[in-house]
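1st attempt posting a full record on here, be nice pls
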Amino acid sequence: MSAGAAFASAAELARRMKRREIGCAELLAHYFERVDRFNPALGAIVVQVREEAGERAREADAALARGEDWGPLHGVPMTVKESYDVAGTPTTWGLPELKDNVATEDALSVTRLKNAGAIVFGKTNVPLMLSDFQSYNDIYGTTSNPWDTNRVPGGSSGGSAAALAAGLTGLETGSDIGGSIRNPAHFCGVFGHKPTWNLLPPRGHAMPGVLTPADISVIGPLARSAEDLETAVRAMAGPDEIAARGLGLRLPTLEKPPREWRVGVWRDDSMAPVDDSVSARVDAVAVALRGLGATVRFDARPVDARHSHFVYQNLLQATMSARLPEARYQRAVAAAAALPAEDASLQAAITRAQVASFRDWTANNERRTHLRWAWHDFFEKCDVLVAPIMATSAFPHDHRPFGERSVTVNGEQVGYFDQVFWAGLASVAYLPSTVVPAGLDAQGLPIGVQIIGPEYGDLITIGVARTLEREGFAFAPAPGY
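the predicted structure (as C-alpha cells):
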C-alpha cells in the first residue's frame, strides 16, 4: 500500500474500502507499520489497543463481504485524545495520580464513532490537566510537531494533530476549552472543529466519576479534510439519553452561494497582537472569499475585545480550577488570599476567579449571556467571522514554569497566555469555530485560520471550510512522512 493512503481523508478511506479497493485489516496494518516507524520520534500515540482493533477490522471486512455497511466511517482506523474513556485503557489527563485509572466503558462519543464504523486503535498525548499550548507530561513524555520536531504540536490535543499530520491515523477527536482543538490544528496544518457548547455530549470525557458537562469545554474532531469534520460532528452530535426524550437535532447549513455570503474579519487586536505572518494568512482567506463574491468587512467587531476577554478569563479560570486536585486548589485559595485588595489587574482578576464565589460566577455568567446576544445580533447581519487562532506558528519546546514563558510576535516578547484571547472569542459565547489550514509561513510552518459562526451553526462554519478547501486551503502532509 502506498504511503499516500495514510494521508487520505477518512471519508475517502471509507469509500475505498467500500469499493473493495483496500481492505479494512490491510489499512489498519498499514497504520500500525507507520506508527512503529514514526511515532517513537513524535510521541503522538501513547496508548494502543492493537488486538481489539485488529479483530474489529477483520469483522469490518467480513461485513463488507456480506454487503453490510456500518456507516460513513466503516473500517476507518482512528485514535482519540487520551482524556477520552476507552474501555480497558488508562484515562489520566497527564496526571500521575491517575496513571492507574483504567476506563471500564467507552465515552459516549467513542461509542457513537464506533457505531458509525470507526475502528479505535489508540489514544494520543496531552499536557498535564489538558492545560497548555504544548503536550507533555510525566506519564507519557513529550509530543513533537511533525513539521519540526524541535517545536510543539500544540495542546491540549497535541497528540491528535501530530498523529494526523504525520499520517499515523485516519481521524481524531479532541477537546477544547481554550483553543485545545484549534491551536494544535493550526500548529500542525490540519482541520479542527470546536463545536457549539454541549452539541456533542461529553460524557466519558471527564475526571473519574464526573457526569456534569463542564462550562465552556467541548469535545470535537480533528481531521485532514473539512468533510471529515462534518462526518464526525454528525456522528457524535445530538442529545444524550436523558435529553433525547424530548430533544432532537436540526443543524442549519449555509445554503446560499458564496457570492451571497457576508464575512466579517478580525485580523489582529491590541489585546493579543498576532505576528504579521499570521494576519497575512487571515488576509489570504478573506481575499479568497471576496474573490468568490462574498461581501467582506474588515471592521467587524461583534463584541468589545477587553470586556469579552475579561468575562472569558473569569469563567475559564473558575472552570479550570474546579477540576484541580484538592492540594492544587488549596494553593489557588492561598494565592488569591495573598493579593492586595487594591490590585485590580487582569492577572489578579484571573487569580481571584480561580476561587470565585457562586455570586461572582453568576455575575460573570450574566455578562456572558449578554455577549451571546451580541454575537446573535451580529450573525443576523453576517454569516461568519474570520480570525486568527494563535499569535504565531509553532514555537520551540518550552518546559519552563508558565510565568517564565513568552512568545515572539513581530520581534517583541509577549505573554505566553495572552494569545488565548483568540480562542476565547468563540469559547466564552459557546460558538462553533472551524480551523482551516491557510498556508505556511516563511519558516515553512503551518498557519491555520478560524471561522467562527452562530450557536448551532457548526455546519455553516464547516461548510465555509469545505469551500475554502476547494480553493486550495487544504491539508498537506508534513515533509518526510
